[in-house]
Amino acid sequence: MTDLIHEHPGRLVSVRELFDIDADFKVPVFAQRDEHVPEADPTYCFNPDVTLAILAGFTRNRRVLLQGLHGTGKSTHIEQVAARLNWPCVRVNLDGHISRLDLVGKDTIVLEEGKQITRFQEGIVPWALRRPVALIFDEFDAGRPDVMFVIQRILEQDGKFTLLDQNQVITPHPDFRLFATANTVGLGNVNGLYHGTQQVNQAQMDRWNIVAKLDYLPREDEIRIVQGKVPRYADPRGYQLISTMVAVAELTRAGFAAGDLSTLMSPRTLIAWAENTEIFGDPARAFRLSFLNKCDEAERGLVAEYYQRCFDQELDESRSLQLAMI
Question: Taking every annotated instance into account, which residue ranges of this chain make up the domain AAA+ ATPase (predicted)?
Answer without folding.
Answer: 60-191
